[in-house]
Design goal:
Blueprint lengths: L4 E5 L5 H11 L6 E7 L5 H8 L3 E4 L8 H14 L4 E4 L8 H6 L4 E5 L11 H8 L3 E8 L9 E8 L6 H24 L3 E4 L2 E4 L9
Helix pairs in contact: 1-6
Length: about 210
């Protein structure tokens, strides 16, 4: 699958969104961010998108009769921009089964643990409480479950002696921001293939100068 036009879904500060924007500016993303989808009009990520000249679709879920109603509007916005890949970056709403099915194999998410360990909320706090020596970051496809989709890429982060959640989160976020744009660039290059639960990343084809 090759994906050159992406939409980012976010609900908060937008640190991963901004990292994707910076990667695009530097020519490292290989894709164009066509749209930000946000469910919180006051979220800082909205202003980041405006500064970056990225189209924004902001909505308030309570203004709609159902999840399906606002998701229909999201689909319309995605179709208008010919979006290939949906990139979840701190989007705090579960997608409906019908939406996930519509974009099957074209939705990715990033999670601050080495899945399947510590899915769901507060993965960093879970890792601290459990006492693991190693945690990390996972980029995965989105399916119908909670952080259960096929794994695309993972990076390990050491849990250091004396770490609290804030210290560990800072190091994890640094890894997240680099890994996410790398994975998006793989999609842009057509290097990602999915077979059941198994994801294959093809080697990058080197251009030969004539």
């Amino acid at each position: 699958m090759k994906a050159n036009r992406i939409a980012v879904f976010a609900s908060g500060r937008g640190s991963n969104f901004q990292a994707l924007v910076e990667a695009q500016r530097k020519g490292l993303l290989g894709a164009e961010i066509r749209l930000l989808v946000c469910d919180k009009p006051e979220a800082p990520v909205v202003e980041l998108a405006k500064v970056a000249d990225v189209d924004v679709f902001v909505f308030q879920p309570k203004a709609y009769a159902s999840k399906e109603a606002y998701e229909r509007e999201i689909v319309t916005e995605l179709d208008r921009r010919d979006v290939d890949l949906l990139v979840l970056a701190g989007y705090m709403r579960l997608l409906s089964p019908s939406f996930v099915e519509t974009y099957s194999g074209r939705i990715v998410n990033i999670h601050p643990s080495l899945l399947p360990a510590f899915p769901g909320k507060d993965a960093i706090g879970q890792a601290i409480e459990y006492g693991v020596k190693m945690t990390g970051v996972t980029v995965h496809f989105v399916d119908g479950g909670m952080d259960t989709g096929p794994v695309i890429a993972q990076r390990a982060v050491e849990v250091r002696e004396g770490d609290d959640a804030a210290a560990l989160a800072e190091r994890i976020h640094e890894v997240e921001q680099k890994l996410y744009y790398e994975v998006v660039s793989w999609f842009a290059e057509g290097r990602v293939s999915l077979n059941g639960r198994h994801v294959t990343i093809a080697d990058k084809v080197q251009e030969v100068e004539h």
